[in-house]
Amino acid sequence: MATHSVLTEHLKKHFGFDGFKGNQEAIIQNVLEGRDTFVLMPTGGGKSLCYQLPSLLMDGTAIVISPLIALMKNQVDAMRNFSEEDGIAHFINSSLTRQAIDQVKADIVSGKTKLLYVAPESLTKEENIEFLKQLKISFYAVDEAHCISEWGHDFRPEYRRIRPIINEIGHAPLIALTATATPKVQHDIQKNLGMLNANVFKSSFNRANLYYEVRPKTKDVEKDLIKYIRSQANKSGIIYCLSRKKVEELAETLSMNGISCLPYHAGMDSAVRSENQDKFLMEKVQVIVATIAFGMGIDKPDVRFVIHYDMPKSLEGYYQETGRGGRDGGEGQCIAFYAYKDLDKLRKFMQGKPVAEQEIGNQLLLETQAYAESSVCRRKLLLHYFGEEYENDNCACCDNCMKPKKTIEGQELLTLVFETILAVREKFKAEHIVDILKGNETSDVKSYQHDELETFSSASDEDEKLLHAVIRQAMLAGFLSKDIENYGLLKITAAGKAYIKKPTPFPVVKDNEFEDEDEETTVKSSGGTCAADDVLFSILKDLRKKLSKKLEVPPFVIFQDPSLEAMATTYPISMDELQNIPGVGAGKAKRYGEEFLKVIKEHVRENEIIRPEDLRVRTVANKSKLKVSIIQSIDRKIALDDIAMAKGLEISELLDEIEAIVYSGTKINIDYFLDEVMDPDRVDEIFEYFNSAETDKIEPALRELGEDDFSEEEIRLVRIKFLSEIGN
Question: Which residue of 47, 237, 248, 673 has the fewest CB atoms within a 10 Å radius of its CB?
């Protein structure tokens, strides 16, 4: 066992630090003594050092199992900086050539290499298992261990196979590390890795320097974002979106508004992705707009704001992502934009998945919703979720504590909640308890005959949100707990039973109100729609690309992205269904539909997808009369400005309608109008631009053709001519 002074000496010699942080030293001692070790430490707490230092002091090579290629490279580079010998750390993953892998193996066999990073996929390859069997392994480290649990925010099935493979390679102590784990996830990890007897080291999850705020996501969200970022001059920030498409769009919008930013997501070319990440690290750009692929293990200490444009799928994901702010202990503002419809969209995307997976996904989404809507201290809620109690009533560093709401007396409602939970023998979830109290005659309530209970309809006058708030705040008070093993059944704790015997006043804070704005899905929908099925979406894009080459027309002429996204969400398998997709009229369906339907049918069959019937995309049927009338007027060669006046439309609104007509495959001829209002050379120049353009968007066209030379209206008019002639 190394003494404190010896360990500190090695820490200084290898890493240049004068002292250990938190419980790093105790963890390292445990590893050096050959015991299994479980480490729960928030982002920025210094997890990596817990296996890096012991690897240098022990005989043999430490195997670090890590999920991301970018993360491995990052850590190997860091280790090499600490050492004079490049061979001290290596990684093996799919990015290496055969020659590079041979070099890595030579270094390991010669004894130079103390740390070997492997992806779980590489660990399962037979040749790698055979090679590792020959080595002296000092210990195994499983980084980002929450990937093992289906209840974790980043589940990876291949992580479930780590234990059997370790058994095959050869016994050595194990250290598992994660920056985020609820008690349920922790148990899952230990059970799966066969380390239930490990010594557990848990650091506090409280990041005192982070400020948490949830804002309503209105139709002006992009305006709010731009205003906020401009107020954070020269400060680095990350914006998280759930879909790759939204990442691209938002990065483009912000750039156009003078904000220095770049996109980052897994669908980008890896060289571009790395370059964008490096520019952010080197402060050549202020903001990175990313999916959750960004940031695992990226150690930029001075990220000053982390914005969630979309609420994440779980509170663990949210905690992990916000944890990338203020890692140096300085300011870190964590702002999330919340709209219920975003979570609803995520729920719909889960349809067709196995029931157990849907149950887990729904529970995690409910926790996220509760966090967003609650008026209780956000720090208290977050820490409670991770099994840690926050003693203060006011953290003075979240929106709810900075603007506390009035409380109302909830003793009577809490008593009704307890009575109902006992009446159903603690075998139901919060939603069911609220349905009983409200008197909602759902199929579940009726089938269990819970409409005959004494408490049925006893709180029918109360708002459902208030009842959920009472239940959540009773959990924070320790009166109720969720049986997470059984998808969140409510149980009354010992403290709750004591409260039933001797009730006392129970002040409750009403939830925040987030009004959802109605929005109609139209062909021109530019906002955060995203395909439910990423795989099908990319297959459809590939097919569109192939057709575009064959027919020698730009891809957007065939179908626009929103149409492909709708196909990858509702899975149309007949011509009728295809014509219900926004942007696909009878003409387009006939011309291009067969091949797309064939691919969708095949995908649905192969993946045994249950098509979500309730996910019908709303079409703009009520506008069809107007469209027919416009087509007839154009056939009669009436000038477009006269049509607009007759219909009570602005010219730009009329162009919106005409664009929707041609995008859905109807051929119309506006040459008579173009001849009147535009020089033929100008028409030809714009037409030629679209013939070779990557996109049909107006902004790039204006930039390319010159904003001073052409107007947006002219470009839109010629785009209508182009789409009608080339595509329809």
Answer: 248
Q: How many CB atoms lie within 10 A of CB 288?
A: 26
Just give the CATH number of 622-727: 1.10.10.1390
- Is the separation of the CB atoms in 53 and 46 below 8 Å? no
The CA-atom distances, in angstroms, between 646 and each of 440, 634, 649, 671, 673 are 50, 13, 8, 20, 16
pLDDT at 486: 67
186/637 Cα distance (integer angstroms)? 71
List the domain boundaries for the chain.
Answer: 4-202, 210-400, 405-509, 534-619, 622-727
Question: Which two structure tokens, joined as six digits, stand for 570?
Answer: 């509702």
* pLDDT digit string, tens, across residues 228-281: 998 998 899 999 998 888 899 899 989 988 899 999 988 888 889 888 988 998
Give the architecture-level CATH label for domain 405-509.
Orthogonal Bundle (1.10)
CATH code that applies to domain 210-400: 3.40.50.300
Distance of CA 284 to the CA centre of its chain: 25
Q: How far, in Å, CA of 584 to CA of 614, rounded? A: 20
CATH of 534-619, one of 3.40.720.10, 2.60.40.10, 1.10.150.80, 1.10.150.20: 1.10.150.80
Alpha helices in 650-707 (DSSP H): 651-663, 671-677, 680-692, 698-705
Q: What is the pTM of this model?
A: 0.61
CATH class, range 4-202? alpha beta
Q: How far apart are CA 475 and CA 99, in angstroms?
A: 57
Quote the DSSP letter at residue 398: B
Q: What is the DSSP string of 567-618?
A: HHHH---SHHHHHTSTT--HHHHHHHHHHHHHHHHHHHHHTTPPP-GGGPPP
CB 557 within 8 A of CB 723: yes
